[in-house]
Amino acid sequence: MIPSLPRVAEWHELALHAAAQPGLALLAPLGAVTAPIRKVPKFGWVVSDPELAREVHRDSEHFSIAADGASGHWWSQMLGDFAADRFEGPAHQQLRAGLGDLFSRPASEHLVETSTGVLLERLRTDLAAGRTVDIAEFGKVFTASAMVDIAGLPRETGTAAPYVEYFAAMERLADLGKGNWSTTRVPARNQRKGRALSALIGATVDQAYDSAGPDTVIGRCRELGLTLEQTRGFTVLLVVAGTVTLASTLGRLVALLHDTGDQHRLLGDAGLIPEAVREGLRVTSSMPVVGRGVVGDVELGGKHLRAGDRVKVMTWYIDNSVGRFDLDLGYVARTRQLWFGGGKHFCLGAALTHVQMTRFLEVLLAAGRPWEITRRRYRFNAFVPLYRTLDIRLR
């Protein structure tokens, strides 16, 4: 199914994809013509069916996140060869089990309040006073602040500028992943750039490693026996993964609620916030394509995949094939949280993401007044589609 012809909200979403990477604008037609699975030259096996996508996520015996075509393979070249061992197998399971409680719902609620409570209150005050707020910039500071704290990195105080700069470095690192349609093998020049950016992002891990508490990622990694180098690498991966995609979703959700007019429904019924969060995650699907490398011959959807093949799961297409942004859509079993991945690699920060988005929307709606978008600019040449500027003001 191809989503129906776009309204203004869908036009902006398509434009965001095209601005980021022109190829992303072709996801809907590509998904439609390849469903449920088809081999595409230079692209690999394209999976456009939710059940087949779940099979790929669940089957770590035949599909690997650490093989060519997958994110773990790319990250290993950015962080160092040691990282590959932490993406699959017992070492991966041990790391996830050791960190899981840090990302539970109660822990996430505490983190969001202590780490970003002041930011959220300032946002509420600025909006209520009629000031224009750039939600794109707010999202950078909001997401970076939370990840700095949960990681156990030294906290910046007094100004948002260090967080904006920190986010910019994370964006530059993520952007090195652009164009990896046929392979995740990174050219030597980009490897050097990536490792330099990783060193910049993880520069303060060294001073935190020995003293970070067990309620932080750095402290927990140390207790689990990870070396300083391994902890630095995992911290870089974590903060990049937990900032750029969420900042994308926050800005795009604000625009979707404005462009569809559904902000008025939320203003009238705050009980719809969970639906808005779920729909925002579904429609934006900020990691639109998820790759896996085939590490063992396997049948999938009636096709024979061989070791060495690559698979691309069309997450954005699958999630959007069930309909437009719709607060009345409700829970759809076939797409259930596919935007967070699945299997052993289901997003570790899923609960934290829900808490962050919920608190953000509560503050956005606190004054009881609708917002207008006074300026919006897309970010061009980016790995993750997002707004460069999204100025809003309450009416």
TrEMBL record:
Keyword match rRNA processing: no
Keywords: Heme, Iron, Metal-binding, Monooxygenase, Oxidoreductase
Coiled-coil features, chain-numbered ranges: none
Molecular function GO terms recorded: heme binding; iron ion binding; monooxygenase activity; oxidoreductase activity, acting on paired donors, with incorporation or reduction of molecular oxygen
Taxonomic superkingdom: Bacteria
Bilayer-crossing regions: none
PROSITE patterns assigned: CYTOCHROME_P450 (PS00086)
Family: Belongs to the cytochrome P450 family.
Protein name in the entry: Cytochrome P450
